[in-house]
Amino acid sequence: MDTEPSVCCSCGACCTTFRITLPRVDLASRPGGWVPDHLTEPYTPTTACMRDNPDVPGRCIALEGAIGTQVRCTIYAQRPAACRDFAPLSALGMGDDACDEARRRHGLRPLGGL
């Protein structure tokens, strides 16, 4: 399936900056869904969001590792579309405004490039 871009494997700032919402039809318990239900919580009647790590509020429950050093998404192949679509050129080492803002919030150099 997908392989993680190296710049993202050493960052993870987006996973601790932005709340990830997704349509409930994307939940694994729904036909055609793929995101593990137990890692989400209801948000609106038609959406869910990724749960926060109970030890680090604001950090996605599926993220492991140290921000800016080495991180890993434990559900990378099953991550929500919002995660798949975030910073589409990061595999080339280029961020966008949202990526750069997340990196700045964690004291990391913005990637820039877009």
Task: Briefly say what this structure is.
This protein has 114 residues and is α+β, with helices and mostly antiparallel strands.
Describe the structure.
This protein is an alpha+beta fold and 114 residues long. The protein has three helices and seven strands; from the N terminus they run αβββββββαα. The longest helix has 9 residues.
Radius of gyration: 14 Å
Calculate the terminal CA-CA distance, rounded to whole Å.
26 Å
Q: Report on the biggest sheet.
A: 3 strands, antiparallel
Strand content: 15-25%
Task: List the strand order in the largest sheet.
Answer: 1-3-2
Could you say which overall geometry the principal axes of the C-alpha atoms support?
globular
Derived structural class: alpha+beta
Number of domains: 1
Q: Mean pLDDT, nearest integer? A: 91
Query: How do the helices and strands follow one another from N- to C-terminus?
Result: HEEEEEEEHH
The low-pLDDT segments are none
Tally of extended strands?
Answer: 7
